[in-house]
Amino acid sequence: xxxxxxxxxxxxxxxxxxxxxxxxxxxxxxxxxxxxxxxxxxxxxxxxxxxxxxxxxxxxxxxxxxxxxxxxxxxxxxxxxxxxxxxxxxxxxxxxxxxxxxxxxxxxxxxxxxxxxxxxxxxxxxxxxxxxxxxxxxxxxxxxxxxxxxxxxxxxxxxxxxxxxxxxxxxxxxxxxxxxxxxxxxxxxxxxxxxxxxxxxxxxxxxxxxxxxxxxxxxxxxxxxxxxxxxxxxxxxxxxxxxxxxxxxxxxxxxxxxxxxxxxxxxxxxxxxxxxxxxxxxxxx
Length: 285
Hints:
Shape: globular
Oligomer: single chain
Distance between the termini: 40 Å
Strand content: over 45%
Structural class: mainly beta
Strand order of the largest sheet: 4-5-6-7-8-9-10-11-12-13-14-15-16-17-18-19
């Protein structure tokens, strides 16, 4: 798939998925104390296999495993990547453990690798308004605007080599059908269409969504956009991506197969198979 080669961004994909449920008992003119609880959906690991097609023959490019550890209050603590097949020397430096830093309200404010902040996040009224990431001597800064429903409608991003003059920002706009982004307008006025199924999204309440992280023009809003359903088709100017899902008994996707088809030739050029394992813990408020 067309992934931005920013492993630090990939590290963000699944901080914590939370689905809350509470039981209330109320009677007229009486308030009865109740026990409320939250069901926390925690990603254990993600396994990704990438294939390419050479002369119509399928060849495995790599297989990698993403693993997570959590704090006692179920915030993600560390993240690691292990390449199981075909380790690229360029990627080796990105295998260092990643740490997540939170403020007193448990809001993610920074990500560290090798003791250095590689990502920083700024909020206003509980909305992410600015993000910064540094990787391979490049600094990327994004700012975001929202509509009255608190849906992100545009991002403005600069990506500049550290020490050089800041580049001109590129602006991406997001159009919605109800609560789902169904069209992206790029800085060069290219229209990208997105289709969804009607099933549960494993990352619907997550700070970072692995599924949308796979698509270039979603990268900057991964911390913000929380689709309730799963992407089944993503079409840009040159490629069409189609995804099939396998669901567990609870209705969550545990496996997805995505193919990348070149529109000019009609040929499938790549395939990605991603598997998820997760657990649900119930915590009293």
